[in-house]
Amino acid sequence: MSAPPRRNRAPRRTQAERRAATIGKLVEATIEAIAEVGYHNASLGEISRRAGVSKGGIFRHFDSRTDLVVAAAEEVGRRHMLAFENIRARENTGEPLNMTHILHRARNQIRQETNTVWFELLVAARTEPELRTRLAPVATALLDDVERVAVAALAPALPADVARLLATSVVHMFDGEAIFRSTYPRPELEDARIEYAAGLLERLMAESRAQNAFPEVSPR
């Protein structure tokens, strides 16, 4: 009798791969816990249960709950920026930008459940000095990236400083909407706000293009 064929076995993961997978599960569980039950209820026990990793296993990878929370914040920021980069890429057709469409997509992204992690952490950081100190560079990097994407998308239609100002203003406006809409939703004002903001941006870009097309000539 011939020997039965050997089944192909998946290659065993290296220690580094197993470690990365465990860290990924812990970060994902932390994001889900904070988004669903809030920062203060996202205890190590809650995170451990969701990740399927013991508390001892958590401390093999993170020195403290704060370290794990900051890692989750960094991952949320990375996903947030990837989404904004995708918005810019999909709108980069060479045609005039449809600002209403872009603003709707940006607002939808800011309202994603994952992004509520940022709101939870920023509120908690107001009264927790260690968390505030640790989150500051993460928040700075995120807003710097938002501004970079906005400048790249709107230039040369708008000067970089104007694009930067408008981008952060729009993000903060949408952040405020996302926080208030669970207790005081005002969809009619929210839609009107986008139309007004889009119209303002398009007018500013049209004026900037007109000025660049007909530069002033200095008298001799």
Keywords:
220 residues; 72% helix; disordered C terminus; 9 helices
3D architecture notes:
The protein is mainly α and 220 residues long. Helices cover 72% and strands 0% of the residues. It has helices at 15-37, 44-51, 55-59, 65-91, 99-110, 116-125, 129-154, 160-180, 187-213. Helix 4 (65-91) packs parallel to helix 7. The chain is elongated, with a radius of gyration of 23 Å.
Brief sketch in words of this structure:
By secondary structure, the chain is mostly helical. The chain is built from 9 helices and no strands.
* Shape estimate: elongated
Largest sheet: none
Q: Calculate Rg over CA atoms.
A: 23 Å
Distance between the termini: 102 Å
In the predicted model, the low-confidence regions spanning at least 5 consecutive residues are 214-220
Structural class: mainly alpha
Average pLDDT confidence is 87
Write the layout of secondary structure elements.
Blueprint: H1 15-37, H2 44-51, H3 55-59, H4 65-91, H5 99-110, H6 116-125, H7 129-154, H8 160-180, H9 187-213
